[in-house]
Amino acid sequence: MPLNAYADSKQEIDTVDLKIQARVNALLEKMTVAEKVALLSGANFWKTVAIERLAIPSIQVTDGPNGVRSNNSDPTTLFPVGVAMASTWNPTLIQNAAAAMGRETRAMGAHVLLGPNVNIQRVPLAGRNFEAYSEDPYLSAEIGLGFVLGVQSENIGTSLKHFVANNQEYMRRTGSSNVDQRTLREIYMPAFEKIVKQAKPWTVMAAYNKVNGVFMTENKTLLQDVLKDEWGFNGVVVSDWGALHTTAPAIEAGLDLEMPGPAKHYGAELLAAIEQGDVDVNSLNNSVKRLLTLIIKTGAMDTRTSATQAGANSEVNSLAHQRLSQQVAEEAITLLKNEKNLLPLNLKKYHLHGRYWPKC
Fold first, then answer.
1. In the predicted structure, residue 60 carries a pLDDT above the cut 70
2. CATH number at residue 323
3. Locate the Glycoside hydrolase family 3 N-terminal domain: which residues (predicted)?
4. In this structure, are strands 112-113 and 61-62 parallel, antiparallel, or unpaired?
5. Which helix (H) or strand (E) holds 138?
């Protein structure tokens, strides 16, 4: 049963969590070590591995932060990019837009939307600045919070990314962001911290880059000590696509899911590491529990009715969603310069003519 079908109040949510954990523990007891290992890597570019013997389904993830897409997907509503969303200064509007993306994600058959991107716009020439929100940690946190709350209100997971200090495209996959603790906590991490604590995203994406010489996908200090232990994140830590470099150091650091599939550093290599004693079985079980929890929360293990699916399909690229996208675009318009007080226009000094003027 999907999470939001159970509960509204905190007491009800606590009851839901207990029910989910009971299902997780029951499944975990039945799984072989090989099945547990298989669950922790992708089946292909967008989907996780299914464990057919135990009726554990595959779940599907999809891009992206400003609209739902996957390879050869049907047209969905295109929303303004992240920097435009932040330019609205309107978290409530972004929450509404994100809820629309959540509905379209479900209609497209996916379970997790890979966003938001709350990396700080630190380098002006960075090629993906458009996808992130701002150079301001506070604004990034507020807009990202609205995004996560909106998507997950539709029982669709989010992936808060790219954790952390992944702020330029040059050497993005191999470079090291060398940063002191104060700067890390005052500039690069506040948006992640606030969203993790207040919105509880279902997944967090570990970035390609190193931080102070350690790849984020095996950075135990940041993934385990800070994200999970200090901030209380209890969801799935997923690698950015192809970001893993090791096996035992990654899973011991708290990296739960390797994407995409088929497995490169988990899979057979993880199984061998367990058999050789290089990986603690408790680390394996903790990651499997997180994956199982995610799968159950999405409702993927419970059949959705055809009527519900038909209703969801009718919302894809709907007029209501298009109008919502337009509202975001309109509120994002920013006046940078107003020489000689040209704006606002004095309508008494201008004459409009032409076939479309009544609509202006």
1. yes
2. 3.20.20.300
3. 49-294
4. parallel
5. helix 137-152
Q: Using CB atoms within 10 A of its CB, is residue 61 exposed (0-12), middle (13-18) or buried (19+)? A: buried
Number of domains the chain is built from:
1
pLDDT at 283 > cutoff 60: yes
What is the model's pTM? 0.91
What would the two tokens of residue 162 be?
């790219």
Q: Which of 180, 240, 280, 302 is catalytic?
A: 240
* pLDDT per residue as tens digits for the range 101-139: 999 999 999 999 999 999 999 988 888 999 999 999 999
Query: Could you give the CA distance from residue 82 to residue 32 in angstroms, rounded to a whole number?
Result: 42
- Which residue, 126, 127, 136, 102, is CA-closest to 116? 102
The CA distances from residue 226 to 142, 265, 296, in Å, are: 21, 24, 26
Query: Which residues constitute the domain of residue 150?
Result: 3-359
240 is catalytic: yes
Of the chain, the percentage scoring pLDDT greater than 70 comes to: 91
The CA distance from 1 to 219, in Å, is 35
Beta strands (DSSP E) in the chain are 61-62, 112-113, 157-163, 176-177, 203-206, 210-211, 214-215, 236-239
The DSSP letter of residue 194 is H
